[in-house]
Design goal:
The complex is a heterodimer of chains A (about 525) and B (about 450). With about 525 residues, chain A is α/β, with parallel strands linked by helices. In chain A, about 35% of the residues lie in helices and about 10% in strands. In chain A, helix 5 runs parallel beside helix 11 (about 345-380). The model of chain B has no long low-confidence stretch (mean pLDDT about 95). The chains are: A alpha/beta (about 525), B alpha/beta (about 450). Chain A: Its EC number is 1.4.4.2.
Chain lengths: ~525, ~450
Amino acid sequence: MSPSEVIGFAPGGEETVTIYERSQSGRRAFVPPPLDVPETPLSELIPASERRAEPPALPEVSEPEIVRHFNNLSKKNFDLDTGFYPLGSCTMKHNPKVNERVAALAGHARLHPAQEAKYAQGALELMFRLQGALAEVAGLPHVSLQPSAGSHGELAGLLLTRAYHDDRGDKRTKVLTPDTAHGTNPATVRMAGYEVVKVGTAEDGGVDLDDLRAKADEEVACLMLTNPNTLGLFDRNITEIARIVHEVGATLYYDGANLNAVMGISRPGDMGFDIVHYNLHKTFSQPHGGGGPGSGPIAVSDRIEPYLPRPQIVEVDSGNGAAPVYDLDFVRPKSIGRLRGFQGNFGVFVRSYAYICSLGGDGLREASDMAVLNANYLRARLAEPGLAEHLPIAFDRACMHEFVVSGTGAKRNLGVKTLDIAKRLLDHRVHPPTVYFPLLVDEAMLIEPTETEPKERLDGFVDALRAVLEEAAEDPQIAQGAPYTTPVRRLDEAGAARRPVVRQPPAGQEPPGDPDDARQVTTGKV
Amino acid sequence: MSRYTSATDSDRRAMLEAIGVESLEDLFVDIPADVRLGRDLEIPPGMSELEVTEHLGALAARNRDAESEVTFLGAGMYDHYVPALVDSITQRSEFLTPYTPYQPEISQGGLQVMFEFQTAISELTGLPVSNASMYEGPSSVASAGYLAKLENGRSKLIASRGVHPHSRETLATYSRGFGSQVQEIPLDESGATDLEALAAAIDDDTSAVFLQQPNFLGTVEDLGPLVEAAKRTGALVVCACDPLTLGILKPPGDYGVDVAVGEGQTLGNRLDFGGPSFGFYAAAERYIRKMPGRIAGETVDVDGKRGFVLTLQTREQHIRREKATHNICTSQALNALAGIVYLAWLGRRGIVELGELMARRTHYAREALGLEAINPGAVVREFAVRVPDLDEFMQSARADGVNPGYRLGQDYPEYADGLLVAVTERRTRADIDRLARHATGVREGVTA
């Protein structure tokens, strides 16, 4: 097969032109509403020292051309509504369309965040109900919806941990993270003012208990854990891990990126976790938007509750059998305070609440069951001859919602790296798995199909992988040079970092020159 | 019921057989019995799509949104008009449903949007480097505090009380983690940051100084002297600003601030009861390798074709882990898209015209109300007044379907009778006059 013979990606259309390059002086889309108050010169309203001298160089483009510009850009994106997206640890499940419709209702979309509680009862009740459902899924009683994304939830969790220890007069300096952890964990530890201490992984893919015992001491504030972990494995020793951590007085934090595996099956609270974050943009179907918005609510145990961010949403019994009313409680003396403005990403809450209403308790359980079934089916298919020798499965036992294969076989046998396989998959209109993560596995590919994919899609992915490997056996250069059918091919990332052009140069200015003028295409990790 | 899955009974059997197990249960062998839930989740059964729509519709109907009253509420988020093309573009599957652009070859649309967004933020703020979005305003302010900590290791953060109360509180929350303390500077009698108090507070341990333009009361601050005083001992100067006013206000970069951050809701994003919107973060060149968040950069592909990538990723958590300059991962890409589409719609002249309209109506409204102004100087979209009988005023206006604004007393004990009034382009002179009639009642009640 020749490099471009596969179906290929939708062509990108026109040449790459920015909205600024489309600008023509005098064009416009906006017409201001009529001026119905005195036309006082601006110079009389704003002192010259604070006034802008020249209008900002925003583009001048007509509405039809703005629409075409962004629609043409959109066609250069691959997206979940178009094709399979087995990106590990990202839970790219279907984003139900009804969620968008209910989120757009004026009662939600045009509700001001400072509206008095008595005029926002519907919104507060929705948030209260969402908190209840999330608490039930995590098995922890108290929820704050405030954090804006998973990493924000992690920061909340460590600040809660700090407040908890401080309140007991207990100074602690270290936080433990497994070597399989998401990068956000250690980064968060630093932001929260703690030192990162890595815990190793045992042969079976779980936490190395001996290493944990050696490192868990009275200086440890917290252990941050993902369970199932980023290898897609449920840690069989979770109860013992919780015991070790609690014995030294530390908290146990649950990174909820992988919660999609265990809804209705096993709950972090029952495993002994003190603090959990959820990724509503993963587990609870908020569209990922090309990098957000997300939402990262947290749930905590009783001992952590006094420190939760404020405000908290409370249900107040109005007595006489009348319906309860909902309010925002700001009077929380031990609270860590705010993590952001207002009440959180409410529009995301609406979508996730609609999702939970659609599925119900039994549907959430079924979602996790099917996510695990799909992952294991893919795992089994990848163990077939022709695949397994090139992409051995890192931990060959039943996985949860995702699993890891290693590209070491393909590298040795065929001379193609994981990166090459990923790039060649693009020509098959498949989004590649997460690559080179977790760090523990050489040439890793982390594959998470999610529950919303039918069997045919999974089979199609196996076919695509097989085609890439068979092709590589004949001519590895094809994968090494891939992709061919995408709007652009491999990009010079090293050059971009060495000579950063991070904005359209102002009119009359050229972008900075390349210091050594030798552009190299990155072939390393993505 | 999970209507978003599609495995039939025969699919399940075929898949289990391929896996080589008898039942689903065999896939969960790793989960010890003592941590199994062993019962159904206590969450009501699933609903049909029709029922979901009706249930959510009923909840929405119990909110009084900006369509069902004439609102002068602001305080950080504003009822601006969002043009139809923003919805049309942001609802496209190709923008709505991709992940973060880790595979640039199939993400050129999103990456170019980031690049265009960064350009607009740089242009508005007058600072050369912008990232491709933060969560929202106050946490962006707090993140700038962390940059200051990494930059100079000092531990005192000074914030004007003109900075949004949520931003100051978020800054204090974050600071307890990275080990800094926040000291507040009062406002003077004109509702602007007290320059003398600021100058007196600056010392050798001052890590960063936080200002806001216009400030929380709507006052256009005289930033030049404040920035000059703030820089005396080498502290970073961080200015929170409202991007929609930057068509008529001098860009913070022109005053020599180090970092400009802010809330982006005013650029084409819905109120949404507080989010999702986006935050922005722009800085002087020398911070380019220390900034938080995603940054798109221009480059070329192997064929020399122009393209865009996520760049300077060695700042970021997924590469650098504990050495990252911030932990942010997922931010607000779709909301930033709404922002750049909105700015393209507004255009170079529109952002000036809209700014002028707001400034004129806002000054008109302050006159029309005839109440004692807390900030009698220059304002753009918002101003603060003292209301002799605030409860009565609120009630009287509320009964007429008008929401007069934000009660300052909840954040400022010094302005217990204060009301913060926001005037966007959606509030006409007729709306303003309607609000003013209720003010007349309060004024006469006092004089009588």
